[in-house]
Amino acid sequence: MFDLKEIRLKNNKTQQQMADMLNIGLTTYHQYETSDRDIPYLIAKKIADIFEVNLEDIFLPTRFTLSKNNKNSK
Question: Taking every annotated instance into account, which residue ranges of this chain make up the domain HTH cro/C1-type (predicted)?
């Protein structure tokens, strides 16, 4: 998983550049980065496309794996 700010910085983008590419205000983008505002799906998809990663790589906290449930454990 990538942190939104981390991936932005690794790609040498400013918050203003991201806001411009997404056609949103700087304050709105900042709120996305600080989790003060939910990111709409279409904006999240655009962000993933800009950084050429999967949505899950940025926006899901962990990868889930299946495991067999042991009936004897509590």
Answer: 4-58
Residue range 11-45, pLDDT digits in tens: 999 999 999 999 999 999 999 999 899 999 999 99
Instruction: Please tell me the CATH code under which domain 4-59 is placed.
Output: 1.10.260.40
DSSP 22-44: HTS-HHHHHHHHTTSSPPPHHHH
Residue 50, C-beta contacts closer than 8 angstroms, at least 6 positions apart = 11, 13, 18, 21
Helix (H) or strand (E) holding 47: helix 41-51
Q: Which residue has the tokens 């806001």?
A: 19
Hey, where are the domains in the chain?
4-59
Among 20, 17, 6, 14, smallest CA distance to 53 is for: 6
